[in-house]
Amino acid sequence: MKILYSSKFDRSYKKLPNKIKKIAEEKENIFRQNPFDKKLKTHKLSGKFRDFWSFSIDYKYRIVFEFANNNIVYFHSIGSHNIYQ
Fold first, then answer.
1. What are the tens digits of pLDDT across the range 10-47?
2. Residue partners of 28: CB distance under 8 A and separation at least 6
3. Residue range 69-75: mean pLDDT, rounded
4. Which of 24, 29, 1, 17 is nearest to 77 (CA)?
């Protein structure tokens, strides 16, 4: 699986605490093996985000992503629940 990172994702990732970055990297490795692993709590979003999915990094932080074709996933944003605004 190939993951492409948006510029918004990159900017937000750089601002995260190092502890969260480490957990995010661990969760990304799990995601690469199985995007629907129970540890990720992957779920489809609704409303204006109905074309996107999300998975949890920890209780507060999550990654919003989109499945594309040909085994490509776009990571659009990372952060707390504020990323849905």
1. 999 999 999 999 999 999 999 999 999 999 999 999 99
2. 3, 63
3. 91
4. 24
8 A C-beta contact, residue 65 and residue 75: yes
- In this structure, is the dihedral angle defined by the CA atoms of residues 65, 35, 43 and 57, taken in order, positive or negative? negative
Q: Are 66 and 3 spatial neighbours (Cβ–Cβ below 8 Å)?
A: no
Model pLDDT, residue 70: 79
Q: Domains plus CATH for the chain? A: 2-79 (3.30.2310.20)
CA angle centred on 57, ends 59 and 23, rounded to 5°: 115
Q: The whole model's pTM is what?
A: 0.90
